Amino acid sequence: MRELTHTEAIDLVGRFEAGQEIPEQMRADVRMLGSLLGRVLRESGSEGLFDDVEHLRSATIQAYTDETPEAFERAAAIADGFTIERADEVARAFTCYFHLVNLAEEHQRVRALREREGRRGDSPTDSIAGAYAQLSAEVGADTALARLQNLRFHPVFTAHPTEARRRAVSSSIRRLAGLLDDRDVAVAEGADARRSEPAMVEEIDTLWRTAPLRAEKPSPTDEVRAVMAIFDETLYTAIPDVYRRIDETLQGADAGSHPPIVRPFVRVGSWVGGDRDGNPFVTASVTRKAAGIASEHILLGLERTALRIGRALTLDATTTPPSPALDALWRRLKGADEDAAVEIAKRSPNEPHRRILLLVARKISATRTRDADLAYREPEQLLGDLRTVQDSLVAAGAARQAYGQLQHLIWQVETYGFHLAELEVRQHSAVHASVLAELEAGGPRSEQTEEVLEVFRSIAYVQERFGLRAAGRYIVSFTRSADDLAAVHRLARYAMGEGATLPVLDVVPLFETFADLQAAPGILAEVVHHPEVAARLEATGRRLEVMLGYSDSSKDVGPVAANLALYEAQAEIAAWARDNEIELTLFHGRGGALGRGGGPANSAILAQPPHSVDGRFKLTEQGEVIFARYGDPAIAMRHIDQVAAAVLMAGAPSNEERNHIAAERYADVAARMDEASRARFYELVRAPGFAPWFATVTPMEELGHLALGSRPARRGLSVESLEDLRAIPWVFAWTQARINLAGWFGLGTALEAVGDEDRLRQAYTDWPLFRTLVDNVAMSLAKADARIARRYLDLGDRDDLAAIVMTEMQLTRSWVIRVTGGNDLLDNKPVLQRAVKMRSPYVDALSLLQLRALRSLRDADAAAPRDPEQERLLLLSVSGVAAGLQNTG
Predict the structure, then answer these.
(1) Domain residues of the chain, as ranges?
(2) Burial class (CB in 10 A: 0-12, 13-18, 19+), 523
(3) How far apart are CA 525 and CA 575, in angstroms?
(4) N- or C-end of the chain: fewer Cβ atoms within 10 A?
(5) What is the pTM of this model?
(6) Any idea what DSSP says for residue 512?
(7) Is 555 a catalytic residue?
(8) Active-site residue, from 99, 160, 297, 334
(9) Bridge-partner residues for 509, per DSSP?
(10) What's the pLDDT tens digit per position in 736-769?
């Protein structure tokens, strides 16, 4: 195939981009940002870089659009022909481009959300207001209101390292987002939009010049601070804004002048600094520091908010007289902080509500700086003072001041307390067993034993310092028996000593493997009779939390059998809980990647078994998903609204009946799919030599050199065994190889085993679990690429295993298209299809560069030192592919 002329290449790129049916504003943003990046590459890159980038770009677009082997080979030859220095620059250029495209897409989402917000009365069913209206129609207004007021959404942020970009890169992107906002404002006001371009060029130049790879792995404390940035920039204000928006929809014109209908339903959790399963760098000291950092952030936020509201609350006593309770509060606060009270009274001589808020701000500051004479002992004391102010304002007729910004502050205290995030500890059951065996044998204690015991002392410290909500959940990974849970309480007694006050512990089992999921109901039935568990159930009104792991179950039996097993486990656990009058919360260990339970959360919630949600939903938010879902306030608010709406609707009679009927009607289909998919998965992963072959045909080993997070990639064993390989590199490595096997493998065989195409199409319509599974597989396959996958598989000398993978990929693709309808993957989801197609040829360019580097590393003499330049190119491409594929890390 002849090479395109420069004019033909420009025309090809233009026609490809024009063929993607994207909104005109987004198209303009992509075009503008791309042209600015081109200017930066000409100015700041080495000579000829821009031309080489364009050369590879047009070649991969041509290969993507005509799919001929000759076109693909030409693109691969271009990638292979670069010098290593030029390949490095090209990889960085494509990665920058993805950051800019992702930004433009996010910006378009924010535009759409703002436009919808401007259309009053628009309450789609995937919003809380819409879900509440639908639920009211089904169960009556009183029942719907009770369910709304008992709603709970509990995201738990984790430090799982699938966010490949540095925080410096994320900060640069956020600054660019602000400049795009400024540009939109200028356009709306009729100003010259080009005035913002110099600042954009400067920021894109900064992005280009910023090293894309971390020099070293972040420490757990670094990870804590990264999560705090999301809180500071988004969640602190976004969550009360969600409550306000819902209340405005429900109350209409009365909102802001009447007590709010909605109660704060979000609780934020964190494993960052508490999750020590397989991570030796998370110590008891780190856990204490994590709690301290989080508390510092929330108290500083509350202090500033109270000060801002206080300064604006200039209501005169003659128009807004204080209540007797407010006068009493003033006397109490003045007695504790007399000098400040006198000064504040001088500046606010007849403004009693203002004076109180300014002294409250000082007490919050004292809480942060640990001034015991002035500090609040617990957030309930602060809430009591704020409600005294609120009640006084209401009694004086100032309802809008009572239920305006002051209500936001009350919501923030109710949501975050003095701890911000409920810090959770996780440890492997095998570690507990080993430590207990050592303790019961007597003799000297090992370093591991001392560290495990110190964790319990740290929990006690955090509870004493920041309150019971600050810590107390203790997750036991790989729970295999009731004794694994009882072991936590035994260790706590060893740690604290005879007769000491023990920390309050909610021990949460984590069922991960296929066998553990099947054993879960029996384990729970036994453990609730253990004295410590029974006492805790009594103290909490019989509340119990159970965690389900998606990652390891998928690695254990394959994604199809794992999803079916998880559904069955939830149904059985929920039935057991109802029979035993237990208020169950299922905690879903879902990752961002499709192979780790990822995908749209709201559709997954609506596909859960009856009574397994009951108005409460808790899940892990991992890696790149944290930034994608919570990095922008408007997107964060929409995500929370959508998930909460699904949690509310999951318990609607219509939804529960639909899931129940479908589960019964298609039980035989589920059984056949389970059996066939598991057999196919075992055929691959249990083949002799599979583990080292997997490490050869993917960059699994190299991912351990990428400074993504503090956690090691493996729990200890070599690549001769997959049992101890963490699920994260298992999924991430398949993704980087453009195979995405962890997200789809086995479904084609499962559907072929069922064989009845008409019945499967009907199941796709009627059966929410099946529809969610198929849709997620379609997304996963759409982001895979058979030609590139074949090149990765060729790195290993196992044609038999490669044939299994490629045959199953084609079979699954064919069946998914037949079941969902249309001629291609995602034809029924055009917005998602467009986003994938728009990125795919650019991801291909990075994949070809990664293949080049990986091939060089594989071909090198095993005894020779690894080539650092090739390793750097590979890791640069990993970062770029992660940016291009987004939720597949």
Answers:
(1) 6-148+163-227, 229-416, 427-582, 663-828
(2) buried
(3) 12
(4) N
(5) 0.90
(6) -
(7) yes
(8) 160
(9) 476
(10) 999 999 999 999 999 999 999 999 999 999 999 9
